[in-house]
Amino acid sequence: MPVRTVLALFVATLSFVVPGIGASVAAAQSTLGTIEGRITDDTGAVLPGVTVTVTSVQTGAVATHVTNALGLYRAPNLNPSEYTVRVDLAGSAR
């Protein structure tokens, strides 16, 4: 078999394999989102133990999270919507 024919067969086979790979990756995509951040004070120091409340404006669904030792919070698996984020530390909301 000439080299040119072998190369043509390889390219043809590759073109059938690649679309299959792309389809499986596309099926794994999600429509959910995440809101995440770090809570700090005016000096930039992190604030652990802060309650963060994420509320969907459209549905009223509420997700409550507490910042970790690094002041980080993460609200995953949120449906597409507009959200408000409320931050509370020892009873003083912001």
Structure, explained:
The chain is an alpha+beta fold and 94 residues long. It has two domains: 1-30; 31-89. 27% of the residues lie in helices and 35% in strands. The strands form two sheets. The chain has a four-stranded antiparallel beta sheet with strand order 3-2-5-6, with no helix packed on it. The relative contact order is 0.19. The model is unreliable at 1-21 (pLDDT under 50).
Please state the CA-atom Rg, rounded to the nearest Å.
Answer: 24 Å
Largest sheet: 4 strands, antiparallel
Distance between the termini: 74 Å
Helical content class: 25-40%
What is the ordering of alpha helices and beta strands?
Answer: HEEEEEE
Work out the strand percent: 35-45%
Number of helices, where a helix is a run of at least 4 consecutive DSSP H or I residues: 1
Q: How many structural domains does the protein architecture include?
A: 2
Shape: globular
Mean pLDDT: 76
In short:
The chain is an alpha+beta fold and 94 residues long. The chain has one helix at residues 3-27, and strands spanning 33-38, 51-56, 62-66, 72-78, 83-89, 92-93. 4% of the residues are buried.
Write the layout of secondary structure elements.
Blueprint: H1 3-27, E1 33-38, E2 51-56, E3 62-66, E4 72-78, E5 83-89, E6 92-93
Antiparallel strand pairs: 1-4, 2-3, 2-5, 5-6
Short descriptors:
1 helix; four-stranded antiparallel β-sheet; 2 domains; 94 residues; two-stranded antiparallel sheet; 6 strands; alpha+beta
